[in-house]
Amino acid sequence: MLMIISLDQLPVGESGIVTVIDAHGLTRRRLLDLGLVPGTVVKTIRKSPAGDPIAYLIRGSIVALRVNDSKQISIKPFSEVAINE
Amino acid sequence: MRLADNYEKNGDLIVTTLYDYARRIANQVTVVKDQGRDWDQLIDDLVTSKYFGYPLMFLLLGVVFWITIVGANCPSQLLSDLFFWFEGQLTFVFQLVQAPEWLYGLLVLGVYRGLSWVVSVMLPPMAIFFPLFTLLEDLGYLPRVAFNLDHLFKRSGAHGKMSLTMSMGFGCNAAGVIAARIIESPRERLIAILTNNFVPCNGRFPGLIAMSSMFMAVGISMASSSLVSALVVASIVITGIMITLAISWLLSRTLLKGESSSFTLELPPYRKPQVITVLIRSFFDRTIFVLWRAVKVAAPAGALIWFLANITVGEYSFIAYLADFLDPLGRIMGLDGVILLAFILGLPANEIVIPIMVMTYLSEGAMIELDSLSAFRQLLLDQGWTWLTALNFMLFSLLHFPCGTTLLTIKKETGSKKWTILAAVLPTIVGIIVCTVIAWIVG
Amino acid sequence: MSDYLISLAGNPNTGKSTVFNRLTGLKQHTGNWPGKTVLQAWGFYRYQNEQYTLVDLPGTYSLLAHSPEEQVARDFICFGQPDATVVVVDATSLERNLNLVLQVLEITSQVVVCLNLVDEAKRKNIQVNAAKLGDELGVPVVETVARRGIGLKELQEQIHLLVHGKIKTNPLKIHYPPELENKISDLIKQLHYLPESLNKRWVALRLLEGDQSILRGIQEVTRLAFS
Ligand SMILES: Nc1nc2c(ncn2[C@@H]2O[C@H](COP(=O)(O)OP(=O)(O)OP(=O)(O)O)[C@@H](O)[C@H]2O)c(=O)[nH]1
Ligand SMILES: [Mg+2]
Predict the structure, then answer these.
(1) Distance (Å, rounded) from C-alpha B129 to C-alpha B133?
(2) Ligand 1 atom 2: the closest Cα is on which residue?
(3) Which one of B172, B267, B333, C166 has the minimum C-beta count within 10 Å?
(4) In degrees, to the nearest 5, what angle opens at C-alpha B260 toward C-alphas B259 and B261?
(5) Over 70: is that where the pLDDT of C1 sits?
């Protein structure tokens, strides 16, 4: 079985593919506009000192998301993909 | 419900399709060779690190002020020497043409002397501080500060974009208030507007720096005293930020109830600042601008104050009467009546608070021979100033009603008298409480 | 009176205000800080004896969402009826920037792409083929280093050619999946009452994703058109 985790769980330095975006309304739009659509590759770059927000590499730019928001994004980590294929 | 679902599905399809095109085209026209070493990441590892992130922010702020204070010392002295030499020449001319005593008092002792202190005390720190701050901004450090501090904004129920409106406030609070337009939720927008004044603007920095370098850390060796002064100014700024967060927290639990809304923050690559352009721009656009505002208002104010000081109502001069009236409150706050009067008369612009204060003190007849910058400090000492007065002056400068321009902007942006009044009353109350408590603890 | 109205759009922090300042000689605040420009700023420049009004818009990632900055930028491009729109693009992150370019191309064909920050791209070993990009998008693409003023003369020239109709653009058409295309063509038929100046396909797209604010904008435009 493939493991799906929420984006805030993706450890620093790891990448994954967005599967589902469960945010709605304005938040959803904002995430989509940054290029976070199902199929997008995302890499966790760093956490802020308090652990929230977390910065991700999304389509060539570094964008910080709050944990509230990144919780709503499901992601398939690459390491898992490799193990299961 | 179904309609909304449909909208969402359509929207997803649209965005996904657009990004598919974007990716295809980007891949076709771009060639990426070896990326080399990523310095940005190394710097970010440090400035956002769990342990060094916050101390570094404080240190950097401290270093900026330290360079300002150390660097401003010598030019300030030179400027004031120059001005006082010229005052001698002026006096000579006045004597030569046998000008009436009152005219000499008004023009030379009132206007000219006040102005020359303002320029020699305010100009050098501004000319150093503004470019340094602009360089940090150009480098790309500010978004990192926002990244480090965001969770505090979130917890206090404020919008993440408030770090941007606040950093605009460092330039000018009116601009910060206008910048709050980028915050969509009316609740969070109001919080940003009401708290913007807690970051000191261009017009207040020179005063903070001057007071700190004159009164904090006296009696310590020269080198370490400027360090202490710098840390004091940095702490004042941090205090402002903490009060911003506290008031935001309070507002989001009382008048403006609600949670912080979602927010994304881009961390741009660091960019090498254009040093020369920054130097020139910040000198002309900010330093000269602020100085000109101070001079423009301070000159007529100097004349007015000289008159007020020389018109007597009964036993007292008019100005002494006003200052005496405010004196009890001032004393409770560890200040005095003249200082409070200066803040009130300084409503049009924060730049003129110190000039008004100095001119009022001068008009009260402390006409000792003042021929150097240390005399500025002496003048204040003669009026009973201590390090506590200076500290509370800095705190009240940070925590009092916004300037007239900012208030008008708030009125325009909120369209409400009620919020405008609150924006003036809130910081003033905080200031009175903070100053009183500190004066009480120390005294 | 100005002869032409030109708007400057683009993602945040791509150098719009820098281009604006260079061309108009004004001093809009710039800074390495996405979202630095909050309001639109107006300025002028002369080129070949004609006067151009340039509008510096706030940076946005898209023209779809409804944040205030995006609204300002979107409303200006749609309803401000500029003679041309310059989209300033960050050469180091083309993919995300192109998303916005494509959205602008859906509204108007009067577009010049200003491929900025090419010095930074070079430093990062990223090479962008501007000519090929122009072919793909069907609009002129000008490489610039706005901070040093490089390429801005060429940008002015391309704007000049465009507003005089001396270049015909052929903007890339986005084809959506059939299910969506069907809905679009159905909806367009019902939009016949809209004024000519509005792009019906674009309005249909916005309506399909439930954009409320677009209706308000249209109402205003139609009111103006009929009064
Ligand atoms: N290296 C380099 N830096 C540039 C260039 N153009 C602009 N910059 C820098 O990029 C940063 C952003 O420039 P701005 O002009 O403020 O960007 P903007 O698009 O107006 O940004 P927003 O108003 O936030 O949307 C500034 O630090 C500029 O000095 C360029 O061609 N090369
Ligand atoms: Mg800008």
Answers:
(1) 6
(2) C117
(3) C166
(4) 110
(5) no
**Could you tell me the pLDDT band of residue C85, with boundaries at 50, 70 and 90?**
very high
The pLDDT of residue B1 is above 60: no
Residue nearest to atom 11 of ligand 1 (CA): C32
CA separation for the pair B201, B404 (Å, rounded): 13
Q: How many whole angstroms separate alpha carbon B211 and alpha carbon B215?
A: 6
Q: Note the pLDDT of residue C11.
A: 95
CATH of the domain at A51: 2.30.30.90
Scanning C55-199, the segments in alpha helix (DSSP H) are 68-79, 94-107, 118-123, 130-137, 152-163, 178-190
What is the phi/psi pair of residue C86, to 5°?
-95, 125
Please name the residue that has the structure tokens 């500290």.
Answer: B391
Give CA–CA dist C88/C85, Å, rounded: 10
B230 alpha carbon – ligand 2 mean position (Å): 32
- The pLDDT value recorded for residue B373 is 60
- Which helix (H) or strand (E) segment holds residue A8: the answer is none
Supply B181's token pair. 């337009």
- Residues B219/B124, Cβ–Cβ less than 8 Å: no
* Percentage of the residues of chain B whose pLDDT score is greater than 70: 94
Residues of chain B contacting C179 with CB distance shorter than 8 Å: 13
Task: Please name the residues between 178 and 217 in chain C that touch chain B, using a CB distance below 8 Å.
Answer: 179-180, 183, 205, 208-210
What's phi and psi for B321, nearest 5 deg? -65, -50
* Cα C10 from Cα C60, distance rounded (Å): 6
CA dist C144 and C16 (Å) reads 11
Closest Cβ–Cβ partner in B11, B262, B265 for A63:
B265
- Of B121-130, B236-245, C27-36, C136-145, which range is least confident? C27-36
Mark yes or no for CB contact B263/A33 under 8 Å.
Answer: no
Which B residues 175-204 touch C at CB under 8 Å? 178-179, 181-184
Of C64, C65, C95, the CB nearest to A35: C95
Cα separation, C61 vs C68, in Å, equals: 12
B262 interfaces chain A, CB cutoff of 8 Å: yes
Both tokens of residue A22?
Answer: 């469960």
Which of B377, B399, B74 is CA-nearest to residue B211? Answer: B377
- pLDDT per residue as tens digits for the range C117-163: 999 999 989 999 999 999 999 999 999 999 999 999 999 999 999 99
Identify the residue whose tokens are 């009546």.
Answer: B337
Residue C122 in contact with ligand 1 by CB distance below 6 A: no
Q: What is the pLDDT of residue B299?
A: 75
Look at residue B220 in the predicted model and tell me its pLDDT: 66
Q: Which of residues 23-82 of A touch C (CB under 8 A)?
A: 26, 29-30, 33-35, 58-61
Cα of B78 to ligand 1 centre, how many Å? 38
Give the C-alpha separation, B311 to C71, whole Å: 57
As a residue count, chain C comes to 227
CB contact under 8 A, B8 and A24: yes
User: How many domains are contained in chain A?
Assistant: 1
Regarding the beta carbon of C43 and ligand 1, being less than 6 Å apart is answered no
Q: Measured between alpha carbons, how far is B268 from B278 in angstroms, rounded to an integer?
A: 19
Count of Cβ atoms closer than 10 Å to residue B38 Cβ: 11
Of C34 and B377, more confident = B377
Neighboring chain C residues of B10 at a CB cutoff of 8 Å: 180, 183, 208-210
d(C-alpha B123, C-alpha B75), whole Å: 9
| b/e burial code for range C88-97 (CB count within 10 A of at least 16 → b) | bbbbbbbbbb
Residue C185 pLDDT greater than 90, yes or no: yes
